[in-house]
Amino acid sequence: MTDPNSLDFTVPDPWGDLPGYALNALTPDERARVDALLETSPEARDELRRYMEAAESLADLSPAVEPSDRVRKLLLAQVDSDIHLMDVAREDARSVLPQKTPLLRTLLKPARVAYAGTAAALISVVAIAVIFGVENSRLNSEVVQLRDDVETEIAELATLRESVEDAQAKFAVQDAEVARLTAVNAALNDALRDQQWLTFVTQNKEYRVPEYLEGSAQAPEANGTLAVKNFDDLAVFLVSSLPPAPEGYQYMLSLVRDGVPDPVATFQVNEAGMARVEFKLPDNIVQYERAVVTLEQLNGDVEVLSGPEVMSASD
């Protein structure tokens, strides 16, 4: 009958110690057995070489990191606690076993060494995982912040672009308005010179003014002056405040005799609504009753007036 308190130990297999040999985690007796195996077995040497190459590859893949003091203290405290529990368990086992043999101590010592090696490896793995997790969290936070900053800058650039486009549009409108005002100012200067000329020639009795024209309901602000040169058939018509003719139309100045208008000149006004029209009188000015201005089509028959009357001689 087999004694229940007896221990049946098998002979250790040195081939199974090759991984621990490669990691330097064997007792002296275990290393001696593996050394003897390596001296006689080329296959064992090849197997050991593969283990060592794998260990070096793992070392290269694992970055050299240093866990924080707090993480190191927590992990070491956990390892010490586990080792203490193992010691307590061994003391309990010693009280149960009738006698400890040197062989039992030999078996327990490598186990503790292997546990210590495993615990150290666990510390490194956990520390690496903690550090990688913290680093990944920090990087993710920085990426999110960077993305937010980029989106904010894009929005600000879009707002700035809209502001620039609005400013450019306003500048374009202002430039057009300045150009228009410049043209109006030039037209006013021309009209002023014409009026000064008319005042001068009438005061010097070169021209006389037989007619003053006023605007109708279609152009209530318009006014004009018809001047005729003495002892000549040359006449000048000065008009101001007359709106520009619509596209496809022109103004016609006519002299009315016996109720029939006689066209004498066509004209357009400038941006300021002014024009100076010189023409030849078809007959002596005293033969006409009055002068009128009508709005006619550009390609219409100038001999047959059909447009509305926009200016006529004042009473």
Task: Explain what the structure shows.
This protein has helices at 18-22, 28-40, 42-61, 69-96, 102-203; strands spanning 207-215, 223-229, 234-240, 249-257, 260-267, 275-280, 290-297, 309-313. It is of the alpha+beta class. Strands 5-4-7-8-1-2-3-6 form an eight-stranded antiparallel beta sheet. A hairpin with a 2-residue loop joins strand 4 (249-257) and strand 5 (260-267). It is rod-shaped.
In short:
It contains five helices and eight strands, in the order αααααββββββββ. With 315 residues, the protein is an alpha+beta fold. α2 (28-40) crosses α3 and α4 runs antiparallel to α5.
Secondary-structure map with pairings?
Blueprint: H1 18-22, H2 28-40, H3 42-61, H4 69-96, H5 102-203, E1 207-215, E2 223-229, E3 234-240, E4 249-257, E5 260-267, E6 275-280, E7 290-297, E8 309-313
Helix pairs in contact: 2-3, 4-5
